[in-house]
Amino acid sequence: MTTENLGRRERKKAATRQAIADAALTLFLERGYDAVSIKDVADAADVSVTTVFKHFSGKEALVFDLDQEMETGFVEAVQTRPSDQSVVDALHDHILALWRAFEGHSQRNQFVALIDSTPVLRAYADRMWTRHTKTLGTALAKELGQDANDPTCRAAARLILDIPALTRDGADSEAAIRAVFSLLRDGWSDGNRRFN
Amino acid sequence: MTTENLGRRERKKAATRQAIADAALTLFLERGYDAVSIKDVADAADVSVTTVFKHFSGKEALVFDLDQEMETGFVEAVQTRPSDQSVVDALHDHILALWRAFEGHSQRNQFVALIDSTPVLRAYADRMWTRHTKTLGTALAKELGQDANDPTCRAAARLILDIPALTRDGADSEAAIRAVFSLLRDGWSDGNRRFN
DNA sequence: CTACATAAGTGAAATAATTACACTTATTGT
DNA sequence: ACAATAAGTGTAATTATTTCACTTATGTAG
Questions:
Q1: Within an 8 Å CB–CB cutoff, is residue A183 touching chain B?
Q2: Second label for B36, Cα 20 to 30 Å away, from A35, B28, B76, B94?
Q3: Which CATH homologous superfamily contains domain B8-59?
Q4: Which segments of chain B belong to CATH 1.10.357.10?
Q5: Which of B87, B134, B190, B192 to mutate to test the interface with A (most CBs of A within 10 A)?
Q6: What pLDDT was estimated at residue B3?
Q7: CA at B102, C1' at D6: how many angstroms apart?
């Protein structure tokens, strides 16, 4: 799907990019993120340092080869949902699907460990998700017939995109997902209880 | 309160730190963040580059001289609230107070413009708030008699700390605050409406 | 098929943030 | 007064990132 029907040039370009990403991930998992320089990655992939920067915006981006697919995924999830489904339910299903797909990856544990142990990568990962707050918020607003900048839609979008960040520091991911969607559906009864 | 009853050493240290922060802010507002190097700041404050790094963890930190006070502020807000007040109400009050204090600053507009126009600073500001998710979440859990890692408490904490990030990209701050607390109190009725 | 335009890749050099190190100087507590 | 300690200095090294002028491969119009 991604490497089809393209000219030789495009194919070679994609191959180079992939070689760099692969070399980077291998080295990072082997030695740790900070112990690997961009030059190391370039050498391992047999390209120049300049070429690495032609393909990736910076060192952190070498770790996350996805990013863009995510944004469209969320937006599509709400737009193409069955007509009798609420947007909250659609997003709930989407997240669960993403989660299960991620679970079934062999390198998953190493990968998570790499990110958890590298502050720069944690920060980058968080931003990677929350960067799409505006887009998802607008998509939600459109679905519900609200203004594009509707603050409630944006806040809801943000809370949902916070989920990956919430599943760190020894938190149970599935519980975090449940908690977020419970908040969205019913609010926070505990927090609103008064003590008098 | 901050510069009292300290020895000469501590006082000079604080003065140096302040001189650096002041020089940095002045230069950043004048020329823009990227056009000012750490060396420029050091020269303007008449200290060595090394000294700058002794006081601030990095270039971004030069802009945000608060950070730590914020965390304790939120935690105290919930702990010292009147006994007939819910934690949500206490946090609502606290945020509104912070907001009003910030409004009454002469440099506020320039400051906001500086951050909005500098991607690195936006990212840093977001992290600065959400960094305290775990602490505030734990404090909330303790108040409510839940487990320290209770996912709902943590999610609620995160949503509240998201507020500053939500007030960007042409969003109305007060509306964002209202939206977040409405979500916390009653959930998201619009998002849960089904269309059949 | 040829020639030209263009995009990918190269290599070197410049800039700037960040860290390490060995050193001087000022402050503090005894 | 003195020894311990913390603040500050200056230099040098490391490394991410950008810029630039250059080569080479590919695609394409004629």
A1: yes
A2: A35
A3: Homeodomain-like (1.10.10.60)
A4: 68-192
A5: B190
A6: 45
A7: 35
Would you give the DSSP letter of residue B62?
Answer: G
CATH architecture entry for B68-192: Orthogonal Bundle (1.10)
Summarize pLDDT for A67-125 with one digit per residue, the tens.
788 999 999 999 999 999 999 999 999 999 999 999 999 999 999 999 999 999 999 99
Range(s) within chain A of domains with CATH label 1.10.10.60: 8-62
Task: Report percent pLDDT > 70 for chain B.
Answer: 96
pLDDT in tens, A36-81: 999 999 999 999 999 999 999 999 999 998 878 899 999 999 999 9
Query: CB neighbours of A192 closer than 8 A, spacing ≥ 6?
Result: B86, B88, B89, B184, B185
Q: Is A150 left (phi over 0), alpha (psi -120 to 50) or beta?
A: beta
Closest CA to B140 of B194, B77, B97: B77
Superfamily of domain A8-62: Homeodomain-like (1.10.10.60)
Task: Identify the CA nearest to B159 among candidates A102, A142, A174, A184.
Answer: A184
Any A CB within 8 A of B178 CB:
yes
Whose tokens are 């969320």? That residue is A74
